[in-house]
Design brief:
Number of helices: 11
Distance between the termini: 17 Å
Mean pLDDT: 91
Number of strands: 14
Shape: elongated
Strand content: 15-25%
Largest sheet: 10 strands, mixed
Low-confidence stretches: none
Radius of gyration: 21 Å
Structural class: alpha/beta
Helix content: 25-40%
Strand order of the largest sheet: 3-4-5-6-9-10-11-12-13-14
């Protein structure tokens, strides 16, 4: 079990308070804050700090970068999936995708998930715990360290529901955005939610203006409830109203994610129903050719049907694109690598 506190969980004010408690000058807190932004897995590497301080840090804190347990490199696309392990023995996934404009990362926000979407690889593994702001930052920095380059775009759409871990996710984002930390652009951050209405309103009030992506996956309330239990307490009409409010408050167009599953939500009539639902809204539909999950009844729609669905939306005046499939040869579905690792037991670790 993890005993030492995560060094990356400490905010600037926490570092200042800790240094004061240790009788250290104020500039030491600034040095530690700067080191946080770079990432480290061993306090002994902090060359501009005295030995006794490095020793004290080692005795008090865990540096915060999770260990890489496995890396899968796609032969079909420029993407890599990581299985990270934390000191408490829990694992999560993160993904790097390499594009002409830079390197984007997809991070997990929870260890497991309690949303129970029927098509998700994490369903059945339960929620173990939320990731702290330091855990999230550790993923980010570990990916940069392994790739040897800076992350240019960030997606919070890995394992877990980001808005179900609202406080820590927002603290992580604000740390990245801080001018004296990473000065990351909010325009390059996307957060994906299955539709927690109260948290969408809260996010709109934050004044951040990051890109909001809503996992819709159905054109009506009945089907959405059947495949996404979260819809029962977050009705579709109210969800769309919250999304409209987010756009009004931030000026950022909402993206609706729609994973296509054969015989479930991919008919042309359902495309027309989706178009009717979204007509008049400032939004974009991101169609996702679903990745097959082992032992799941949800099967991928054929490429031809994906294109037919997209064309029907366009004919109805809805802005839609088909997401480029990445990593289909490396457990592409979120949670699939972690699920395979957990189900394999000790021999698979």
């Amino acid at each position: 079990m993890q005993s030492a506190k995560n060094f990356l969980d400490l905010e600037k004010t926490d570092l200042e308070a800790w240094c004061q408690d240790q009788g250290l000058p104020k500039f030491r807190a600034k040095q530690l804050y700067q080191w946080q932004s770079k990432g480290l897995d061993d306090f002994s590497a902090l060359a501009n700090l005295p030995l006794d301080l490095r020793t004290k840090l080692s005795e008090t804190f865990w540096p915060g970068l999770p260990k890489i347990r496995q890396v899968q490199r796609s032969k079909l696309s420029e993407s890599q999936k990581y299985l990270f392990a934390y000191p408490d023995g829990e694992t999560i996934e993160a993904v790097l995708m390499f594009h002409h404009y830079g390197m984007s990362a997809c991070l997990s926000s929870q260890i497991g998930c309690r949303m129970a979407c029927r098509f998700c690889a994490s369903t059945g593994l339960a929620l173990k715990r939320n990731l702290s702001r330091g855990d999230l930052l550790g993923q980010f920095l570990a990916l940069e360290d392994h790739a040897g380059q800076a992350i240019s775009n960030l997606d919070l759409m890995g394992i877990g529901e980001p808005l179900d871990n609202y406080t820590e996710v927002l603290a992580f984002i604000r740390r990245l955005l801080a001018p004296d930390f990473r000065n990351f652009s909010v325009r390059r951050i996307s957060l994906s939610t299955c539709g927690l209405i109260d948290k969408i309103y809260a996010l709109a009030a934050e004044g951040l203006g990051l890109t909001l992506a809503i996992s819709l996956h159905a054109p009506d309330q009945a089907l959405r409830e059947a495949i996404m239990p979260v819809a029962k307490n977050n009705p579709l009409p109210d969800l769309l109203e919250a999304a409209d409010f987010y756009f009004e408050q931030t000026g950022r167009r909402v993206s609706y994610e729609y994973a296509l599953f054969a015989g479930i939500n991919d008919s042309l009539d359902q495309a027309k129903a989706l178009a009717k639902l979204l007509t008049g809204r400032k939004c974009h539909v991101n169609l996702i050719p679903a990745n097959a999950v082992e032992h799941s009844p949800f099967q991928a729609t054929t490429p031809a049907q994906v294109q037919a669905f997209a064309k029907m939306l366009e004919r109805q005046g809805i802005n839609a694109t088909v997401r480029r499939s990445l990593g289909q040869d490396i457990d592409a579905a979120c949670g699939q690598l972690r699920r395979r690792n957990l189900l394999a037991g000790p021999a698979g670790k």
